[in-house]
Give the backbone structure.
Amino acid sequence: MLQIRTNARAMRRMSRELYAPNTRYAVVSSLEDHQSMSVEHLKQFHTSNYTPNDSFIFIAGKPTEEVYRTIEKTLDQSSWPKSSLAQKLPEVIYNSNPTMRAHEDVPNAQQASLIMGNRTLSIYDPDYYALQLTVHILGGGYLGSRLMSNIREEKGLTYSIGAFCMDNPICNELLITSDVNKDKVEETITEIKNEVVKLQQELVSREEFDLALSILKNQAMQMLDGTIATGDLLTYLYRLKMDEKYQQNLFDYFETATPEDVLQCAQKYLDPEQFITVDAH
């Protein structure tokens, strides 16, 4: 029998709680779905969806005319089948009545996977840069983040814990994820909420703020380090329907950001009582 990992089960349940039932983003595939597929079905899907419609190519570096000619010859769109299928992302409908505290039973699981979060700001919101910084301080994955310092280093409840925003162009969620011992789930939830409340009530010290900002700046610089990274960044911005100014605006924000931004952002956008909480074990 196929054993689904606890983190996969927790994420599937979170999707069902975030999005309205029976809508596209609430649907998760099952083993039966894959077993019911046929080769003919896959061919039809490929013909309808893998077309030059809405396709794009990014070239980073110093391409020669020969490179351009080779690309045009190899990827000649006239040889691709055209599709009348409108490439439109499904409408996002959030769940108006989610189960705020949900559990997924996973027999014989050795540990528990925990996910907390809810929908958050659009990536196009003017406050999104401040939200990125605030979430980074909360649980950006580095050892000095609030969640790593408390829940890993001080309490020893987990090896790793992180907070992040999904950066989806049509729906965006703030999620906190970790794997913990089954008997430590409730304690971990309490400590996560405590750290969020601290960000809402206490100003981040200049030392902590400068460390977090330095790491975030370095991560942003790595997105411009070399032709492959630059190409990946351009693809990312194109997918989000943003121009190159996005990255420059981010660096401009870094120069003006203050600990007060973090305090105000946490108060406005981080409410632990509105977090959907899912554990699987």
Observations:
- The two ends are 17 Å apart (CA to CA).
- Strands lie at 101-104, 112-119, 161-165, 173-180, 276-280.
- The chain has eleven helices and five strands.
